[in-house]
């Protein structure tokens, strides 16, 4: 569990500050790292990085249309869009789409974050013309035939049932809901009261409203820029006009769900920082100061984590805890999560909270800051070796900021963070209004007002 939160949250700060500075002007631009960026005549941003010798290329179409944009009568519609990626569209039947992808050995998938929907194609370079055609048709030419929508809703029910059996996933959804209520509080999964209620008309209305050129980008890895733009020259955009996102408003509060068992899961956060905030990098350093879980496989992580050390002194039973730093375009969550035996959760939460409070009162040591800065840079560098992370990083930066920064530039930002910067951001964030989510056997888990 620790690794899951660690890689995602440290990388999120990196995602907003990595790869080469790009020009969003109409003309093509190239930097030393090989990143090329241009715009299609229809306004969609295209970026490519042809720096891999692998025979496989990856092309991702990213649309800034995640759950945060759903209205109250559209809850879960992003979930429905995600599972309908293999359905018939205006240029291909479901059979044709599947046959073409199978014949060229390609993989087409769709994933969602709270802000973006990402259609990904992995394909041999020799077959990219067919693969990109399938990708574009699936992402921009949806047909939403009623009988196929009915079939995909069965998958929605199945996925929702699977999530119900995963306390960690439910904790994440509960935490966002209580922290933001709407916008970033919208779930990645459809609520039960919406099962069977998604219609072709509802889906098409959402696509036409949100799939606009300025909110879409296509990024290729292992493909030349001219080749990619040639494949996309006939790409059409479903939506028109602009749709400004409602600003995320942090609310705070507490939500609990008792499901019994021997274990309790809890997370306590305050409002963090948006990706474009000047203190976002310092907050990532603070996260590593507090502790992001074990850095040695199968170890308890106590040697490298302040909060694991604190929790370990409070209980002799098995537990896990890690600092959370989740970053979005205009807000974020910062705090920690913990998993412990139900009878021990109170002691664990109080010990970890005390450690967070100590940072705001007593500051941090220079050696802890230097170690944390090295951890941030190492995590960012290792994550950038993964093609999926690189391409997602470029897409998110282009859509949220319009520019992309180099890894060297990010490293300089990390190196410039001082001990006082970390202390200042700690006081700014940790002393904010708290939110708490808890699930499991909560018989001895304190309420938020008993902890703060």
What does this structure look like?
Strand 2 and strand 3 form a beta hairpin. This protein has a seven-stranded mixed beta sheet, with helices on both faces. The protein starts with a helix and ends with a helix. The protein is of the alpha+beta class and 452 residues long. The protein contains 16 helices and twelve strands.
Shape descriptor? globular
Mean pLDDT score: 89
Tally of individual helices: 16
Give the tally of β-strands. Answer: 12
CA-atom Rg in angstroms: 22 Å
Q: Report the biggest beta sheet as strand number plus sense, adding barrel if it closes.
A: 7 strands, mixed
Spatial strand order of the main sheet: 1-2-3-7-4-6-5
Low-confidence region ranges: 1-32
Span between termini: 25 Å
Features:
452 residues; alpha+beta; seven-stranded mixed beta sheet; five-stranded mixed beta sheet; 18% strand; disordered N terminus
Question: Which secondary structure elements does this structure contain, and how are they paired or packed?
Answer:
Layout: H1 2-15, E1 29-30, E2 35-39, E3 45-49, E4 56-63, H2 77-83, H3 94-103, E5 107-112, E6 117-124, H4 128-140, H5 146-164, H6 167-180, H7 200-210, E7 216-221, H8 225-232, E8 253-258, E9 263-271, H9 280-290, H10 306-314, E10 319-327, E11 332-341, H11 345-362, H12 366-383, H13 387-400, H14 407-415, H15 419-430, E12 435-440, H16 448-451
Parallel strand pairs: 3-7, 8-12
Antiparallel strand pairs: 1-2, 2-3, 4-6, 4-7, 5-6, 9-11, 9-12, 10-11
Summarize the structure.
This protein is of the alpha+beta class and 452 residues long. It has helices at residues 2-15, 77-83, 94-103, 128-140, 146-164, 167-180, 200-210, 225-232, 280-290, 306-314, 345-362, 366-383, 387-400, 407-415, 419-430, 448-451; strands at 29-30, 35-39, 45-49, 56-63, 107-112, 117-124, 216-221, 253-258, 263-271, 319-327, 332-341, 435-440.
């Amino acid at each position: 569990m620790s690794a899951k939160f660690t890689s995602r949250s440290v990388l999120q700060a990196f995602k907003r500050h990595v790869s080469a500075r790009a020009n969003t002007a109409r003309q093509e631009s190239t930097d030393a790292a090989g990143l090329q960026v241009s715009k299609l005549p229809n306004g969609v941003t295209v970026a490519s990085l042809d720096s891999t010798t692998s025979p496989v290329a990856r092309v991702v179409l990213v649309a800034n249309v995640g759950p945060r944009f759903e209205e109250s009568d559209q809850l879960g519609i992003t979930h429905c869009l995600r599972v309908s990626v293999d359905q018939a569209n205006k240029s291909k039947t479901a059979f044709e789409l599947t046959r073409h992808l199978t014949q060229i050995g390609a993989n087409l998938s769709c994933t969602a974050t709270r802000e973006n929907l990402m259609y990904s194609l992995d394909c041999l370079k020799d077959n990219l013309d067919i693969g990109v055609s399938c990708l574009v048709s699936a992402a921009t030419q949806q047909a939403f035939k009623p009988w196929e929508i009915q079939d995909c809703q069965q998958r929605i029910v199945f996925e929702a049932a699977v999530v119900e059996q995963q306390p960690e996933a439910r904790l994440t959804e509960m935490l966002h809901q209580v922290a933001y209520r709407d916008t970033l509080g919208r779930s990645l999964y459809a609520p039960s009261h919406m099962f069977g209620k998604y219609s072709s008309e509802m889906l098409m209305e959402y696509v036409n409203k949100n799939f606009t050129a300025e909110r879409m980008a296509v990024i290729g890895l292992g493909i030349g820029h001219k080749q990619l733009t040639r494949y996309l020259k006939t790409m059409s955009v479903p939506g028109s006009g602009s749709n400004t996102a409602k600003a995320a408003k942090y609310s705070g509060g507490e939500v609990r769900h008792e499901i019994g068992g021997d274990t309790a899961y809890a997370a306590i956060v305050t409002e963090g920082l948006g990706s474009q905030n000047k203190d976002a990098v310092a907050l990532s350093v603070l996260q590593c100061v507090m502790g992001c879980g074990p850095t040695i496989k199968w170890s308890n992580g106590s040697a490298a984590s302040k909060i694991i050390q604190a929790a370990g002194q409070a209980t002799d039973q098995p537990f896990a805890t890690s600092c959370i730093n989740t970053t979005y375009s205009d807000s974020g969550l910062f705090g920690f999560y913990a998993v412990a035996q139900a009878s021990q959760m109170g002691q664990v939460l109080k010990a970890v909270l005390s450690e967070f409070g100590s940072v705001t009162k007593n500051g941090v040591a220079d050696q802890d800051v230097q170690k944390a800065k090295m951890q941030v840079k190492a995590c960012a560098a290792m994550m950038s070796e993964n093609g999926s992370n690189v391409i997602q990083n470029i897409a998110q930066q282009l859509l949220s900021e319009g520019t992309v920064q180099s890894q060297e530039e990010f490293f300089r930002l990390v190196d410039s963070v001082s001990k006082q910067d970390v202390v200042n951001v700690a006081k700014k964030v940790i002393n904010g209004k708290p939110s708490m989510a808890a699930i499991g056997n909560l018989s001895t888990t304190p309420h938020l007002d008993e902890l703060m």
